[in-house]
Amino acid sequence: MTQLIIHKDKMQEALMRFLSTIQTDEIRLEFDDKHFFAEPVQGKSVLDILAEQAEDMGPEDLSLNVDHYLYGLSKRSEK
Fold it and tell me: Does the pTM exceed 0.70?
């Protein structure tokens, strides 16, 4: 982490230089009365993308009772 001490009049210039180095359009900022923190927002994980695209794949017991759903046989009970 780089630490700088700058005059508040130069803060905008320093922020613009920092922002120009970031490869994303979204930045997460955290600050309170004494500290300031900025970092790029991380992209979605592969699992997040897959979860958004997931569709209902039928009954929850499909793998257990595939013969029932395909051929009309009696359902099996989970043991």
Answer: no
